[in-house]
Specification:
Layout lengths: L5 H12 L22 E4 L25 H9 L4 E6 L14 H9 L3 E6 L11 H18 L6 E5 L9 H15 L4 E5 L2 H9 L5 E4 L8 H7 L4 E5 L17 E6 L21 H9 L1 E4 L3 E5 L6 E6 L3 E8 L2 E5 L8 E4 L3 E2 L18
Parallel strand pairs: 1-2, 2-3, 3-4, 4-5, 5-6, 6-7
Antiparallel strand pairs: 1-8, 7-8, 9-12, 9-15, 10-11, 12-13, 13-14
Length: about 375
Amino acid sequence: MKKISKRDFLISSLAMSAVGLSGCSDSDFIGSPRSSNIHVIDQANASFLDRRTSPSGLDGLDACTRPNERYYRALAEAGIDTVIRYFSDRNNAGLNCKNLTVRERDMLFDYGFSIAVVYQYNGNVAGRYTGARAQQDAAFILERAQVIRPPDGSTIYIGVDGDLSKNSIRSVRAYFTEIRRILGGRFELGVYGPGVHCRSLKDAGLAQFFWVPEAPAWNGTREFIRSQDWTLYQNKTNVDRSSLTAGFGQEVIIDTNIINPKTTDTIGAFSSDNSIKTYDRSKLERVASSRLWVQSDRLDVFDRPGGNVVDRACIARTVHVLRIDGDWALVDLDEDGTAEGYCQVPNLLPLNDMPRWKRSVCSPRNI
């Protein structure tokens, strides 16, 4: 039997994932049931037109009262179906309206979104994760749950925002052990953090969902992604050049996420009827199979095959492949479903083959 090269296998796989897309205009992808467009985002601050500074952004304070309806309507029209939002002890600098409120929850439901919750506060502080700190954090989570009322069985993700050097495996395990005890099985537990902590908590049975940030240099992330044990991968961060966020009259900070169809059909988000959101696996497969890793230090993107360079992408970051034309891929770089140009297919790798990140002069910001 003839051995198939990695290059030929990749082109074949991409061609299969793009069945029915050839010859379509970019606008045909947006909102279509056959689309491979992103459908899950996490949003660091709610999009309100009156985001004034307040100590915590919790209910009852005079801020975050006028939702940016145009922005949320555009998200829904673009095919977003799930928004991940935050519980946090207080707002970070510049992130008014970080906390999910009842007003925002109901507005998200009105637009048809399901909601997932992540607790995150000072997650990158060295030595933060201890059993003692877990008691304080679990009490805060339960307090906010009384207000927001996520249903039992939904998932609470816990942000562990830092590499192994900041928080040891042992201390993070102790923290999750205590969080799990206090929550008492009411919620499923997820972790947002580098691969090393995802692997440790999975092996210890202390978390059920594993959300990996777009930080390819972090300890264990490449190995965990390649193991296919992840639940969510945050593939684009601070997508501020994308039409998903641009032109709405204020700064909106969102990241986009891919669900791993090999491990799950849910991330534990909940809908307005208190059901746990599940996803059609064929849709998850389309989204995942059309995200490819850049394996070259700097990937040039051309206005047409062999034409002029108009953009770039960087190693160990993903591109969204919209169509394959021979050795050329039409790609979306900022996850809004609109093509930025063409790159060469041999410079890409499938999602289960994350390349090793290395420092280079290429900057991924705004791509």
